[in-house]
Amino acid sequence: MPCLNRDIIFAIGKKLVEDGDPVAVMKFALSGKKQLYEMRNVFASVTFLDLNEGYYGIGWGHKIGKFYYKNGEELPLKFFMDCIGDSIINLHLNYSHIRRTIYQPFIDKIVKKKKLVTFSFSPEILMEQTFFDDFLPQFAATLKHVSIPSSYMTPKFRDSFILESLTVLDQFNFELPLFCCKTTSLTLADKCNPYPNGSYNDFIEKYPELNSGLTSIKRIYFKYDFCSFFFNFERSRISLTDLMNYFPSVELIQFTFPLIILTKSFVLNYIQFYTYVLQESTKFPPKIVIDFSIKTMNSFNLDCWKEICSGFEFDESVTTFYCFRKSVQSHGDESAVLEVRIPKF
Question: What domain of life is recorded for the organism (predicted)?
Answer without folding.
Answer: Eukaryota
